[in-house]
Write a structure and sequence with these properties.
This protein has 396 residues and is mainly alpha-helical. Helices cover 62% and strands 4% of the residues. The strands form 3 sheets. It has a two-stranded antiparallel ribbon. A two-stranded parallel sheet has the order 2-3. The protein starts with 11 loop residues before the first helix and ends in a 7-residue tail after the last strand.
Length: 396
């Protein structure tokens, strides 16, 4: 009967350990190779690792690098719109959670998506002659290897391996990662951090951080957040098997006595725009809202529900929310001022066709308006804006 348990003949906990290790290898292949290396070019993996992860993805899912990368890039390009391949804001959470793999299959058959967003992915002999020609060959190879090594328990291991990407990547990250959790940054989409400890799914749980800084090889931003994918990268970098190209910027604040604002100040603000918006929420919007709640007890119910309205990007609010926001701003001059300032601030990095000189003039005007607003926290924030400085981006 020993042959029923495969040539390795592992104990129960041995099978559990092997399954967990294989799942982590799959998550590494997704987050390090497909996501950070291929889709966003934030990382350069050693060619041997790229070949291994590409082979592993083929074995555990039958997936091609070009397909995953193209669909993910399109997701970023059209996030939370009708053209987003798998947004729960458009398709509904239930559909993305339960039918995420089906949404993926539909989009991979879109030739225009593959042509436009799949550039720069592997285009060699093995891709065309093996992975494309025999898409399910890897899965058959996986089934045979698992049954040989693990015997009957290998059936369970196979099922878990084949379900890992559809459940975790296509369902949990694409679904819950745009629906539930906390947000460090108010980016233009609904991405959330599921938990601050990105361990089970390779660090992909820190999805809001990733959407705020898509080209960063490191997903954790705050001190108490942990990205196991970054831990793997650090190990591989020490072994000279990976090179980090870019990580999220950290703002450098250097208080100055002068009110002078130059082009470097503008560039520093634009580079650190996600940090600027987060600081504005914490240092201006929320303190003013708290003060106004205390001062306007008759409008307390309206102001009590105004927090999300004031900090969320307008594009993420539905019509009912926009109406409530208009009522809040019409009834409160201070909140109207700080909200209007935030929207003007956002134009500094949304105006792609505007010259640097014009943007610099807008920044100077914004600082002058804030200093003349009579709102102390807004005046202090203007001084903070003048203090932003550029810093070299280095791997951490």
């Amino acid at each position: 009967m020993e042959y029923l348990y495969g040539v390795l003949g592992l104990s129960f906990w041995g099978y559990v350990a092997v399954t967990l290790v294989m799942l982590q290898v799959t998550m590494m292949a997704v987050t390090l190779y497909l996501h950070r290396d291929q889709a966003h070019r934030a990382l350069d993996l050693h060619p041997a690792l790229r070949h291994f992860f590409r082979f592993w993805i083929w074995c555990t899912s039958g997936m091609l690098t070009r397909e995953w990368v193209a669909i993910h890039r399109k997701h970023h390009a059209f996030c939370e719109t009708e053209n987003d391949p798998h947004s729960p804001q458009i398709h509904g959470l239930r559909k993305v959670l339960l039918q995420g793999a089906e949404l993926y299959r539909i989009e991979k058959n879109n030739a225009a998506t593959m042509a436009k967003f799949g550039r720069g992915t592997p285009d060699d002999w093995i891709e065309h002659k093996v992975y494309e020609r025999v898409p399910y060959g890897g899965i058959l190879l996986l089934i045979g290897a698992d049954l040989l090594l693990f015997g009957v328990p290998g059936i369970t291991i196979i099922a878990i391996q084949l379900a890992a990407m559809p459940v975790f990547a296509a369902g949990v990250i694409n679904g819950l990662g745009h629906h539930s959790g906390y947000r460090n940054f108010e980016c233009d989409d609904a991405a959330t951090n599921l938990v601050p400890w990105g361990v089970l799914i390779g660090g992909e749980e820190l999805h809001n951080n990733h959407h705020a800084f898509p080209t960063s090889a490191k997903f954790s931003v705050r001190r108490w957040e942990f990205d196991i994918g970054w831990l793997y990268i650090c190990v591989l970098r020490a072994l000279r098997l990976a090179r980090v190209k870019k990580v999220a910027p950290r703002p450098v604040i250097t208080p100055v006595a002068s009110k002078h604002v130059d082009i470097d100040t503008l560039r520093a603000i634009i580079v650190n725009r996600m940090h600027v918006l987060r600081d504005y929420t914490r240092q201006v919007t929320l303190p003013v809202l708290k003060r106004e709640r205390k001062a306007a007890s008759d409008r307390q119910p309206l102001l009590k529900r105004a927090r999300k309205l004031l900090i969320r990007q307008p594009a993420l609010l539905d019509e009912h929310a926009h109406q409530r926001l208009r009522h809040v701003l019409q009834d409160n001059a201070a909140l109207h001022t700080v909200h209007e300032f935030r929207e003007k601030l956002r134009t500094l990095w949304s105006g792609a066709s505007v010259s640097n000189e014009r943007l610099l003039g807008q920044l100077r005007d914004l600082c002058a308006e804030a200093e003349a607003s009579g709102i102390k926290v807004l005046e202090e924030f203007a001084a903070r804006l003048r203090s932003y400085r550029l810093a070299p981006v280095a791997a951490r």
